[in-house]
């Protein structure tokens, strides 16, 4: 077993049930190999990491005022419409705003996960590791909260999940009781400031029956060579609930980002997710929706813009386990310079999941002849009364449109920015969060050099 990780586990603390789970997860991590191209889901992405050389991100102290936070976080917080938020620097919460008293009186909980383990142990134990376990569940079963999931047919896929399960230091915890609606978004802003380290975080959002909440999960840093951000996001959406989850990854150059996000969606419940990938040198994001209940609905949106030597890999699963459920996936990406984009998406319909209505669309705009894109849309249908479709397109900028804009006196960089924004617009128009959309458009402008 890797000694630094063993030492870190000893310092993690927590109740006996959590310590046991961490230890089991670290044992699993040690037994697995790093996934390679021989594993289908990792065919186009290779992660090179010397685990023995990794050291944890340094601890950070609480700050008293927003002005003491990194400038990028200050700018973002000044425009956010979040009703309450946490700011984490590496493993520690360094700043927070309190949940409005009205919501707290209704039983809404929003705090960091480490605090939640101490103050709300029953709720955390019930759901933690239930949706994203240490190992990867197979494609037929994702365990219900409180039960044990099946193991993956490709166990090496679970190495990073096992590490995140063992060594997570903190993250966010959201709990919304039955029938409560949280109108303003809640947010978590994660930064790193210590190069050559790793940080492991975990997010757990629980929306009980007929509850409603929006959660924004953002990551940002300066250039940090040799740094690793490993995470897991568990989204529990009970019957009739509505959850909107937004993830914006804008780590600096030199960061390797690996995160698994999975939603468990109950009867007549809705999960709307948006994954935005703009930063890090290598990013691997998995977004999966398990439509457990009849009439469940999942909207899966994503935007990414890879330039220079960035490598972005997105792996998705729309898993229909019940009849009359609906899912709609729209992933749109841009590739420039020598960047690499990878998309592998699966619609899986279980036996008995009749009247499934599922769509998957992936489109990539290439700004450079040297950029590469790999797209693997897939269907696995085990029911005979379904409507499923998938498709993928990759192509360059429309030269006629570019010529038209330049002939009107618009310089090339601004013209490309306008075309890229237009290309991504049908995703952005589906996001009813103005501050988030404005922030994303600003990153896009910077990417094409037209800020």
Summarize the structure.
The chain is an alpha/beta fold.
Describe the 3D structure.
The protein is an alpha/beta fold and 451 residues long. It has two domains: 3-396, no CATH class; 400-451, no CATH class. The chain has helices spanning 3-12, 16-31, 71-79, 101-105, 113-119, 121-127, 159-167, 399-407, 412-428, 434-447; strands spanning 84-89, 92-96, 109-112, 170-176, 186-192, 198-207, 212-221, 227-237, 242-250, 255-265, 270-277, 282-291, 297-306, 311-320, 326-335, 340-349, 357-366, 372-381, 387-396. The strands form two sheets. The chain has a ten-stranded mixed β-sheet, with helices on one face. A nine-stranded mixed β-sheet has the order 3-4-6-8-10-12-14-16-18. A hairpin with a 2-residue loop joins strand 1 (84-89) and strand 2 (92-96). Helix 1 (3-12) runs antiparallel to helix 2, helix 2 packs antiparallel against helix 7 and helix 9 runs antiparallel to helix 10 (434-447). InterPro entries: Fe-S_cluster_assembly_SufBD (IPR055346), SUF_FeS_clus_asmbl_SufBD_core (IPR000825), SUF_FeS_clus_asmbl_SufBD_sf (IPR037284), SUF_FeS_clus_asmbl_SufD (IPR011542), SufBD_N (IPR045595). Residues 16-186 form the SUF system FeS cluster assembly SufBD N-terminal domain. Belongs to the iron-sulfur cluster assembly SufBD family. Residues 193-423 form the SUF system FeS cluster assembly SufBD core domain. This is Fe-S cluster assembly protein SufD.
């Amino acid at each position: 077993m890797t000694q630094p990780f063993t030492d870190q586990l000893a310092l993690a603390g927590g109740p006996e049930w959590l310590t046991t789970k961490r230890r089991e997860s670290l044992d699993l991590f040690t037994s697995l190999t790093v996934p390679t191209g021989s594993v289908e889901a990792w065919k186009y992405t290779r992660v090179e990491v010397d685990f023995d050389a990794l050291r944890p991100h340094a601890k950070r102290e609480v700050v008293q005022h927003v002005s003491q936070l990194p400038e990028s976080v200050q700018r973002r917080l000044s425009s956010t419409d979040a009703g309450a938020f946490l700011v984490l620097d590496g493993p520690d919460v360094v700043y927070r705003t309190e949940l409005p008293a009205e919501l707290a009186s209704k039983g809404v909980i929003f705090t960091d996960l480490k605090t939640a383990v101490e103050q709300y142990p029953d709720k955390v134990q019930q759901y933690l590791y239930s949706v994203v376990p240490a190992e990867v569940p197979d494609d037929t079963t994702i365990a219900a909260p409180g039960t044990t999931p099946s193991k993956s047919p490709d166990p090496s896929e679970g190495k990073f999940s096992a590490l995140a399960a063992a060594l997570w230091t903190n993250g966010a915890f959201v709990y919304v009781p039955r029938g409560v609606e949280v109108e303003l978004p809640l947010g978590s802003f994660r930064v790193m400031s210590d190069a050559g380290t790793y940080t492991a975080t975990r997010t757990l959002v629980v929306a009980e029956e007929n509850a409603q909440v929006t959660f924004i999960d953002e990551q940002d840093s300066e250039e940090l060579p040799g740094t690793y951000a490993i995470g897991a996001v568990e989204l529990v959406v009970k019957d009739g609930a509505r959850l909107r989850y937004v993830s914006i990854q804008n780590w600096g150059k030199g960061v390797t980002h690996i995160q698994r996000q999975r939603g468990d969606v109950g009867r007549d419940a809705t999960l709307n997710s948006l994954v935005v990938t703009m930063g890090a040198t290598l990013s691997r994001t998995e977004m999966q929706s398990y439509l457990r209940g009849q009439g469940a609905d999942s909207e899966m949106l994503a935007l990414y813009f890879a330039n220079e030597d960035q490598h972005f890999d997105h792996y998705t699963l729309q898993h229909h386990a019940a009849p009359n459920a609906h899912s709609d996936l729209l992933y749109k990406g841009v590739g420039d310079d020598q960047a690499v984009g990878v998309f592998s998406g699966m619609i899986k319909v279980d036996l008995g999941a009749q009247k499934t209505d599922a769509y998957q669309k992936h489109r990539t705009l290439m700004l450079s002849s040297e950029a590469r894109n790999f797209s693997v849309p897939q269907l696995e249908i085990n029911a005979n009364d379904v409507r499923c479709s998938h498709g993928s397109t990759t192509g360059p900028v429309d030269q006629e449109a570019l010529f038209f804009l330049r002939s009107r006196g618009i310089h090339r960089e601004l013209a490309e920015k306008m075309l890229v924004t237009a290309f991504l617009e049908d995703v952005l128009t589906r996001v009813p969060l103005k501050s988030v959309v404005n922030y994303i458009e600003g990153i896009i402008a910077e990417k094409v050099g037209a800020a």
